[in-house]
């Protein structure tokens, strides 16, 4: 497996990825359980779309916080102490960025979507499919911003604190009931991801 | 044939210019010692060659490509730094396995490298549990597994004991002979590595002071003095009492004909452990303006 397995072992250790899968299963079950707590008579989330959005959005923030922790203390620390040099000696910068991004962000987000859909299916829970676009938009906004911040600042804890303040901003959007704007933020997420890639290409170690 | 070419290479951090228009060519299969005092720009130069930082202006080519934008250079150049950069929470064997797999290097050969560097006992240890010297050795093994064409070593022996230092120098010399490896090495103990080098690149304050073959660097117009470490200072002083000598710790500083001096000492039953010729230090300092 070479560099891919090397990066996964470095980021998640022996059982880190398995812990994420456990946690994502618990989060998915909690979406169904908490919705059912308020609406015991139905498993159809379209009955109360707002409630379902609030629940999934909150769960999305919880998952993003964990991933952001991994990004800042992973990529941020690697840039700070020079561990990234180990990987940059194995592939070019583009490949290392894409692999890191996949392992840190896409893998965890993708696994959550898969596990959540599986849990929804098994529990005969039928939410509207639009929750996926809102989740992706929120998740990528937080993760891509955090990636960009970690690369620009090159300090693990400082970038983590800045990313946490960003989480509070997103939480504020949720509390004020403006979650719908996340339907339109996907282009911004892609721009942030591209900026993170550009910053990584230019980062001096 | 040259493998590294630099023309007017300049690096600036804000208002501070750390490299001023360096121009040089590193020959294939050479061992080039990069010397200079602290803050001379050695690490910056080596990092530019390794593609870890970008130049501000000028031209640099490593194996015919710009190291900053190249896709191939990361795999062809091995980098060894004075500070450890390997993932701290991975075990030695994990690192060796993954790097061997990435570079299709036989694992049995990689394990032999671990044996050569006395790392076999640490295979199940995490990198963070290793001493600074052992981490340094692991970095060297990491670089060698890559089968690189060029090795860039920034004070690779900074944390190593004397035996390990010579092991590393010997390894570089052997690899150069066997595989045609080109090595760029910076050291704060230039006298030690000069014996293994073919070329010297001396910089001070970012300005290139000397570049050429080692024999061109050594100057004969200095007073030749020897620092000799012996087993019995008292006996040595008695044997050399009609000469002007100075005792520094457990070594003596003396000028004159080395063959005669060693004959007198051995006739007096004094064992010589180590001899260093001051010409090396003086030449280096003279060329670099190193105070």
TrEMBL record, chain A:
State the source organism's domain of life: Archaea
Give yes or no: UniProt keyword Membrane: yes
Transmembrane spans = 17-38, 50-68, 96-123, 129-150, 157-175
Q: Which UniProt keywords apply?
A: Membrane, Transmembrane, Transmembrane helix
Provide the protein name: Uncharacterized protein
Which taxonomic lineage is given here?
A: Archaea, Thermoproteota, Thermoprotei, Sulfolobales, Sulfolobaceae
From TrEMBL, chain B:
Instruction: Tell me what this protein is called.
Output: ABC transporter related
Upper classification of the organism: Archaea, Thermoproteota, Thermoprotei, Sulfolobales, Sulfolobaceae
> Which source organism?
Saccharolobus islandicus (strain Y.G.57.14 / Yellowstone #1) (Sulfolobus islandicus)
Signal sequence extent? none
What GO molecular function terms would the record report?
Answer: ATP binding; ATP hydrolysis activity
Q: Reply yes or no: does the keyword Repressor apply.
A: no
Record keywords: Transport included?
A: yes
The record's section on InterPro entries has: AAA+_ATPase, ABC_transporter-like_ATP-bd, ABC_Transporter_VariousFunc, P-loop_NTPase
Domain of life, source organism: Archaea
Indicate the segments forming the ABC transporter domain, all copies. Answer: 4-230
